[in-house]
Amino acid sequence: MIKADSLSKSYGNVRALHKVSFNIAKGEISGILGPNGAGKTTLFKILTGLITPDSGSFSITSDKQKKIGAIIENPALYEYLSAHKNLQVLAKMQGLKLSKDQVNEQLTLVGLPTNRHDPVRNFSLGMKQRLGIATALLNNPDALILDEPFLGLDPLGMQKLRELIIRLAKERNLSVLVSSHQLEELSKVCQNLYLMQNGEITSSGSTQEILSKAAFQYRILGINLSQSETLKTLKATITSNTAWVTVARNDVSALIQQLVNEGVEILEVQPETNLNELYAQV
Ligand SMILES: Nc1ncnc2c1ncn2[C@@H]1O[C@H](COP(=O)(O)OP(=O)(O)OP(=O)(O)O)[C@@H](O)[C@H]1O
């Protein structure tokens, strides 16, 4: 559905992308994970035709007039207009005339209220992301690109956005490509992951594969942590009610079970992923 073949791009002597290839199937959500400057935005700009690659090619299989919808960097909205007006104006630019009902349908599709008529500058970041997605989906493209959509959202906002992306991919059989520097967010929403560093894809595979290969540091909040022999054996760092321990993702549930057996009362287990460690491991 979206196929990239050895895409490369430099800005002067800055190499932003180097021989990037991938294949994303229809209805699949894929993630590009990479730190700042990895080349994610450059890749998305190429896929949406905003810039041309120096070499390599890509294709998007679709019989739609608009093959791909995208939010690059930030949703492009008119802050002083309402959500309704934004959709009407942006639809017009794409050669569409939307009726009131169609505007309401588009707002409902992304979970936005239909009764807000104030300027979108009053909207939360999460609401602006939703409106951006509603705009990107005008003209029913087969693919959707979202550049760092989780940036700046609070945990609930992230969860709601994840649910929206998963629902849209399923209902519309959309191929979705999402970028982020947060593994936790991407792994909850993507079936496949591409790890990108210095313009290159250094590793790729199903989210399950990538996660099972890597060992992560976990922060465990609990009571009686210092009495655990297991944590001592794993060389965990333990303070009064917190322990930091590095284990493989697949071993976490066994670890929790062991801690419970040792009389530890667990309050919270949180992965603290360091991207550099992940890159070194997979
Ligand atoms: N217009 C430009 N002119 C010169 N260098 C650029 C330009 N755009 C991007 N770069 C450089 O290309 C590299 C890749 O940038 P890009 O924005 O694609 O990365 P990114 O992964 O999206 O990072 P971020 O998350 O910080 O946006 C960086 O070194 C960046 O400084």
Automatic annotation (TrEMBL):
Residues 2-223 form the ABC transporter domain. PROSITE patterns: ABC_TRANSPORTER_1, ABC_TRANSPORTER_2. Keywords: ATP-binding, Nucleotide-binding, Transport. InterPro entries: AAA+_ATPase, ABC_transporter-like_ATP-bd, ABC_transporter-like_CS, P-loop_NTPase. It comes from the Bacteria. SMART domains: AAA. One of its GO terms (molecular function) is ATP hydrolysis activity. Belongs to the ABC transporter superfamily. PANTHER family: ABC TRANSPORTER, ATP-BINDING PROTEIN. This is ABC-2 type transport system ATP-binding protein. The lineage of its organism: Bacteria, Pseudomonadati, Bacteroidota, Cytophagia, Cytophagales.
